[in-house]
């Protein structure tokens, strides 16, 4: 399907939702892990409850309106009201989001949650796209990104040398992979399975759900828990959509967003464990736990390369990790 036909199909889907009475928030998203889908559905239910049914959410799931970038652009243009995308993607819209793909920024999940729940750190980041027509409402955990490979287990930095590794379409992810000695290949998620299968790629990097939901475990048999990045998913809402709502409705939407994040936290860990177990038991994936100190050392120059704004945010994030 051409880009033009995709756009026409998306427009027809959105217009068909316009017949719903009351205020309807049109929400598009790509394919996601079950906990995240459940969190977005929880958000929708809470919005309806908190507004007495005056505001409802109409979903366009699983990429039927296009990829994440296309949906952000649709929110910018007002054709879509909401979307949920990777914070890594948002780097190309607001440079400050480029902090999140930085390697080994967070010590662990608890550190990640402390930072993401800190309004002093996050509110300026959420508002950084306000002049582009959208802002962030909340975040969802997207787990730790780890390297996984078809044949060669990654147990040391040297194991990455010469491997072709799929990365996010992010300058930060590309630079990290280069410093670790691998060859970064930026491509969309939809192409990864076939590229691994055909030898175009030696591996990729993502959370455990890539093994099960995208079924990469069928072709990639080694998963190394180096945890090089924890990039949040960001729930976005268009400025035009917010302006359609009353002050009380805006408050309800904001509350529903925060509560959906708390729900997401409550179900995330068990789902990750289940995905890892399925990968081992059903697909025969071997999990490796490398010493990450040499990995940290290899990518340390990236922090010196940050501009002043990103360095300030990275420092605040690192400080939040000190107990």
Short description:
The protein is α/β, with parallel strands linked by helices and 323 residues long. It contains 13 helices and eleven strands. The protein is globular, with a radius of gyration of 20 Å.
CATH superfamily of the largest domain: Bacterial extracellular solute-binding protein, family 7
Strand order of the largest sheet: 7-6-8-5-9-11
Could you tell me the mean pLDDT?
93
What is the CATH C level class of the largest domain, in words?
Alpha Beta
Give the number of DSSP strands: 11
Provide an overview of this structure.
The strands form two sheets. The chain has a six-stranded mixed beta sheet with strand order 7-6-8-5-9-11, with helices on one face. Strands 2-1-3-10-4 form a five-stranded mixed beta sheet, with helices on both faces. The radius of gyration is 20 Å and the shape is globular. The protein has 13 helices and eleven strands. It is an alpha/beta fold. Helix content is 45%, strand content 18%. The protein folds into two domains: 3-142 and 231-272, D-Maltodextrin-Binding Protein, domain 2; 145-229 and 277-320, Bacterial extracellular solute-binding protein, family 7 (D-Maltodextrin-Binding Protein, domain 2, 3-Layer(aba) Sandwich).
Features:
323 residues, alpha/beta, D-Maltodextrin-Binding Protein, domain 2, 2 domains, 5-stranded mixed beta sheet, 13 helices, 45% helix
Strands, helices and their partners?
Elements: H1 3-17, E1 23-29, H2 34-50, E2 55-60, H3 68-77, E3 82-86, H4 109-116, H5 119-126, E4 134-140, E5 145-149, E6 164-167, H6 171-179, E7 183-186, H7 192-198, E8 203-206, H8 209-212, E9 222-229, E10 233-238, H9 239-244, H10 247-283, E11 286-288, H11 293-299, H12 301-304, H13 308-320
Parallel strand pairs: 1-2, 1-3, 6-7, 6-8, 9-11
Antiparallel strand pairs: 3-10, 4-10, 5-8, 5-9
Helix pairs in contact: 2-10
């Amino acid at each position: 399907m051409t880009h033009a036909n995709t756009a026409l199909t998306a427009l027809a889907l959105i217009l068909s939702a316009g017949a719903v009475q009351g205020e309807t928030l049109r929400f598009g998203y790509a394919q996601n892990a079950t906990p995240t889908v459940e969190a977005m559905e929880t958000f929708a239910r809470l919005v309806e409850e908190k507004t007495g049914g005056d505001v409802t959410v109409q979903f366009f799931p699983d990429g039927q309106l296009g990829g994440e970038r296309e949906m952000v652009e649709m929110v910018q243009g007002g054709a879509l009201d909401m979307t949920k995308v990777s914070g890594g993607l948002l780097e190309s819209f607001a440079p400050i989001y480029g902090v999140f793909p930085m390697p080994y920024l967070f010590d662990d999940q608890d550190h990640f949650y402390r930072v993401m729940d800190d309004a002093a750190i996050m509110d300026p980041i959420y508002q950084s796209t306000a002049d582009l027509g959208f802002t962030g409402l909340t975040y969802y955990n997207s787990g730790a990104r780890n390297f996984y490979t078809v044949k060669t287990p990654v147990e040391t930095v040297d194991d990455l040398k010469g491997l072709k590794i799929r990365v996010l379409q992010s300058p930060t992810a590309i630079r990290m992979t280069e410093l670790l000695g691998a060859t970064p290949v930026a491509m969309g998620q939809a192409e990864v399975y076939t590229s691994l299968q055909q030898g175009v790629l030696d591996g990729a990097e993502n959370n455990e759900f890539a093994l099960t939901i995208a079924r990469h475990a069928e072709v990639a048999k080694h998963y190394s828990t180096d945890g090089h990045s924890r990039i949040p998913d960001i729930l976005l809402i268009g400025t035009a959509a917010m302006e359609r709502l009353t002050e009380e409705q805006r408050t309800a939407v904001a509350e529903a967003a925060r509560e959906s994040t708390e729900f997401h936290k409550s179900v995330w860990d068990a789902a990750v464990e289940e995905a890892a177990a399925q990968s081992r038991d059903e697909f025969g994936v071997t999990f490796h736990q490398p010493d990450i100190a040499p990995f940290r050392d290899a990518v340390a120059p990236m922090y010196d390369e940050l501009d002043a704004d990103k360095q300030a945010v990275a420092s605040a994030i690192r400080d939040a990790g000190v107990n």
